Amino acid sequence: MKLLTHNLLSSHVRGVGPRGFPLRLQATEVRINPVEFNPDFVARMIPKVEWAALLEAADTLHLVEVPKGPIEGYEHDEKFLRQMHHVLLEVRTGPSLASLATAG
Amino acid sequence: MAALPTDSGWWPAAGARFFCTAGRGLEPFLMREVRARLAATQVEYISGKVFFTTCSDLNMLKKLKSAERLFLLIKKQFPLNVSSVSKGKIFNEMQRLVNDDPESWLSAISIWKNLLELDAKEDKLSQRDANPLKRKVEENDIINPKKLKTKQMQELQESRECQLEKQMEEATVEQGDFLTNREKSQEAFQNDVVKAVAAPNQKDLTFRVSCRCSGSMAKTFTAQIFIHLNDIYSVVGIPVFRVPLASRAYIKTAGLRSTIAWAMASLAEIKAGALVLDPMCGLGTILLEAAKEWPDVYYVGADVSDSQLLGACDNLKAAGLQDKIELLKVSVIELPLPSESVDIIISDIPFGKKFKLGKDIKNILQEMERVLHVGGTIVLLLSEDHHRRLQDCEPGGIPRNSKGSHTDEPGIEKCLNPGGKTDLSDTVSSSAETGGQGDLDKMPPFGSLVPVDHYRVSLGRTGAFICRYRKSPSSGR
Question: C-alpha distances in angstroms, B317 versus A35, A96, B254, B272, B330?
Fold first, then answer.
């Protein structure tokens, strides 16, 4: 799944997924999937990002060039938006079909 | 748009007149769509068809999402008068329907050709004119006028009866030279139109004609004519596309009917940057339709069934939308999403026996309400049963008691009358399910989900309701 989705899911319960499933990411499972850059879309996603979870994920996956937080005037900062675009939409973990089946 | 002269004819400056068939209940959506997408004018809806005028070309016409089929209008008239039982009279009327105003046929053909960019050279034109009005069915097509009518015109009132007689053939031969080309086609056309036995006798067999051609026969015909005769109008048209608009090239395996899925998405007020969730996405039809129309949006689909999700995944890949739509295997009653994180929810609530009314629906709505932003929109497709139950307990100032309490009392009591039980037992409908266990007989919509509007639509054999809710800021939770 995209890191954006992972971010959304992991902010539900900090550090732990639903029903006690840790949403741990594994560095071995990362794929980069090129996606067309759409600055408007990325700009709108920024407010939805849970930064702590994102930075933790980025760390686990050894991603570089990850902004530490929203910067002032990010909506017009193409460099920032492109970095976020890459992190949120092009980095994929695991198979595209995320299985978060609840335990038991 | 100025008139465009071409070799084969002319393009009217004001645009061409079309009509579409649409599933029952989708007509208002279609009218809105032709106005928005095609800048259509003179839009009217009459008995199962939407008529409109537009200058749009084929590429734009192809994008219509809430229509079944699209036709170029040849003529639309008052209904044939069948008050007299004289077959001859009816016959003459039909003849007049076809023969009168040849200009309307010719101009429609010429527009049609322009639309399809057929070769407009003179010699080919004259050769083609011999058979432009005959019906055609290509080998692989199952286009069948009778099938068209019965499938789409559920309100078709009567079948018309006419008797084929020699005098008709003679009558057409008497037409002037102007119509020479059409004579042969007239005969064939009228041969095709109707055959029947004496009218008033109920026991006699009466039928409409369907004409199927394949092989070399099919290749001689270039066009198809569609006719619908009922008590409201007589309409003649040419289908613009071989394949119905409702059959989408980008959907590999359809779940919900694509026109309904699009209509639901169109109600959801999707804006760029929104997070749209379908928590029971099945094969993903709704998300596909939405993502095609509103691409700058973050779509998430969820389902508990592996097979459905695999089908959805296939569909996404086939449509090239796998970057736009995320799929999760999670349950709608336990969504791993933060509260108030979703902007829009669109879903087809499963009908039928598998889903028990009452408690299940309650949990589903509850979870949907939780994850939705205040001000967010929910659009659901509900069976008639679900809708009836939700309707019987509209909020409108009704005080909500404990939310989500699973007590033994039917929920409606809490909703309407916290005190008295007996008052309501009369009003509980007889179709209520097991009352005993604490299942709700009626489901109160949740305090902050306010119904906005609903539309009754046909799903073929059954009906359903598209219902829209908005989450308002709730008090006392």
Answer: 14, 11, 14, 22, 21
Q: List CB contacts (< 8 A) between A17 and chain B.
A: 336
Distance CA A33, CA A87 (A): 10
Contacts of B341 in chain A (CB under 8 A): 8, 11, 48
pLDDT value at residue B93: 81
Domain range list for chain B: 14-122+204-247, 258-394+446-471
B14-122+204-247, what's its fold? VC0802-like (3.30.2130)
For B9, the token pair is 């004819």
pLDDT reading at B226 higher than 50:
yes
Sign of CA dihedral A98, A4, A14, B304: negative
Measured CA to CA, the distance from residue A46 to residue A43 in angstroms comes to 5
Q: What is the 8-class DSSP label of residue B178?
A: G
CATH fold of B258-394+446-471 reads Rossmann fold (3.40.50)
Nearest to B329 among A4, A8, A99 (CB): A99
| Closest chain B residue to A92, measured at CA | B323
Which residue of chain A comes nearest to B301, CA vs CA? A97
The residues pairing with B379 across neighbouring beta strands, listed in sequence order, are: B346, B468
Question: What interhelical angle do B122-129 and B180-193 show, nearest 10?
Answer: 40
Which runs of E-coded beta strand occur in B289-356?
Answer: 298-302, 325-329, 342-348
- pLDDT above 90 as % of chain B: 36
B202 pLDDT above the threshold of 90: no
pTM: 0.71
Q: What domains appear along chain A, each with residue ranges and CATH number?
A: 3-99 (2.20.25.10)
Among residues A53, A67, A74, A17, the alpha carbon closest in space to that of B329 is found at: A17
Do B258-394+446-471 and B14-122+204-247 have the same topology in CATH?
Answer: no
Q: What does the alpha-carbon distance between residue B430 and residue B205 come to, in Å, rounded to a whole number?
A: 43
The counts of H helices and E strands in chain B are: 16, 15
| Chain B: closest CA distance from residue A100 (Å) | 6
